Amino acid sequence: MAAFGEVQTPLEQARVVVLPVPYDLSLSFLPGARKGPKAILDASVELELFHAELGIDPSEVGIHAAEEVPWVAGDAAASHALIRDAARRYLELGRFVVALGGDHSITHPLVQAHREAVGAFTVLHIDAHTDLYPEWQGSIYSHASPIYRLVQEGIPVVQVGLRAISRESLALIRAHRIPYFPAHRLHTQGWPLQEILDALGERVYITFDFDALDPSVMPAVGTPLPDGLTYREAANLLTAVFQHKEVVGMDFVELSPNGTFHAEMTAAQLVYHAIGCKALQAGWLQPEHE
Ligand SMILES: [Mn+2]
Membrane-crossing residues (predicted)? Predict the structure, then answer.
């Protein structure tokens, strides 16, 4: 039986559902993100459950690792519908859903499910790439396109950590006035955390592409790029967002295991950190220190 952390909490008693989405049929460069969810779950068993920085044991909220969402070979639309339906099922039960990809295309059906279940929010998109391509290799279901699809649907987006920004993407960012915080700005001018928070609405969905992290800390991604975030920068960003916003859901995508176990541990630790932040924000747990 799969679990996130050492303990599998039954769904009835769990506040958090970790939803594995091993879908990577849209990947353009290096496939392998289908192995991401299992790698994160496997690594999570090694986590220290007490989170000293947060002063809580986030696993005490009750974490249920759900069944993997299946996919339909050769049918991206049908696969995305299965992802949307799986997320909606847990959202309708009032659970906080943490999806593990899988490639970044899964964010579109996940955001759809959250919009239907919990209403409006801003999407905080943390990534090396803009994912603003109208289509890629002929498909709107590509992992290069999910943010474009959200923008087209009028969903507010804030982008953080970008390093690969095409001229076309930049034109789109400007045309739609998307608040964006490229890595070169963060690393030369310092983190404008308040500006990022101000750009977000009161309710936020977080989509975290592991290639937002620097390849030196996160080598196990399909499309690595230098000048990425440190683990601490990513953790601080998540902490700040949870402290000031209501986070309604999140996904962590594009881990493509490559035999470097430390990458999987890093991914599991960051997911666990975010679950802990949610536990504090929701008042599910109280910190043991102040
Ligand atoms: Mn990316």
Answer: none
Q: What is the CATH number of the domain that holds 197?
A: 3.40.800.10
Q: Which helix (H) or strand (E) holds 20?
A: strand 16-21
Q: Confirm whether residue 51 is marked as ligand binding.
A: no
Nearest to 51 by CA among 239, 259, 241, 256: 239
Distance 86 CA to ligand 1 centre (A): 24
78 occurs within a structural domain:
yes
The number of CA neighbours under 13 Å toward the Cβ of 110 is 31
What is the DSSP secondary-structure string of 187-217?
HHH---HHHHHHHS-SEEEEEEEGGGB-TTT
Contact 223, 129 (CB under 8 A): yes
CA of 277 to the centre of ligand 1 (A): 23
User: What are 56-79's pLDDT values in tens digits?
Assistant: 999 999 999 999 999 988 888 999
* Cα 93 to averaged position of ligand 1 atoms, centre (Å): 31
Check: pTM over 0.85? Answer yes or no: yes
Range(s) of the domain holding residue 112: 11-280
Q: Nearest Cα to 224, choosing from 235, 216, 232, 234?
A: 216
